[in-house]
């Protein structure tokens, strides 16, 4: 997982990050779409607000998991959730948009989260 949400079965984004709900709902009130931040990379597109509201149904499975926390993001609480659930947490000095900021590093981490240890 790259700097994302760590839900439990049935959670929604807003259930996990309630502090973001009012702001995002207000921003999406007219169109139903939550816009990218001002000045964001033009490849980012608005997201349907329903993506944040909808619960995520899934059955938990026992597999090794790694959470890559981009330490310049506000996802520290998600890194702590991951650690509390037994996930390995790897920290990288980057913002939330790692795939856009450092695509090579992002790809290396997806292929092998230990790749960070091999960086100078």
Beta-strand percent range = 5-15%
Overall geometry: globular
What kind of oligomer do you see?
single chain
The number of E-state strands comes to 4
The succession of helices and strands, N to C, reads HHEEHEHEHH
In terms of per-residue confidence, which ranges show pLDDT below 50 for 5 or more consecutive residues?
none
**In whole angstroms, how far apart are the ends?**
23 Å
Domains, number: 2
- Structure classification: alpha+beta
Q: Average pLDDT, to the nearest integer?
A: 90
Helical segment tally? 6
Spatial strand sequence of the major β-sheet: 1-2
Computed Rg: 15 Å
What is the percent of helical residues? 25-40%
Q: Biggest sheet, in brief?
A: 2 strands, antiparallel
Topology (SSEs and partners):
Blueprint: H1 13-16, H2 21-28, E1 33-34, E2 47-48, H3 50-53, E3 66-70, H4 76-84, E4 88-92, H5 98-101, H6 103-111
Parallel strand pairs: 3-4
Antiparallel strand pairs: 1-2
Q: What would the keywords be for this entry?
A:
120 residues, 6 helices, alpha+beta, two-stranded antiparallel sheet, 2 domains
């Amino acid at each position: 997982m790259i700097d994302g949400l760590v839900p439990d079965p049935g959670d929604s984004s807003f259930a996990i990050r309630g502090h973001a709900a009012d702001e995002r709902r207000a921003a999406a009130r007219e169109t139903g779409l939550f816009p990218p931040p001002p000045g964001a990379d033009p490849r980012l597109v608005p997201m349907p607000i329903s993506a944040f509201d909808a619960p995520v149904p899934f059955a938990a499975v026992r597999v090794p998991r790694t959470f890559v926390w981009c330490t310049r993001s506000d996802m520290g609480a998600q890194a702590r959730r991951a650690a509390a659930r037994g996930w390995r947490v790897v920290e990288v000095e980057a913002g939330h948009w790692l795939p856009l900021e450092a695509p090579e590093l992002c790809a290396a981490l997806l292929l092998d989260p230990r790749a960070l240890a091999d960086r100078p």
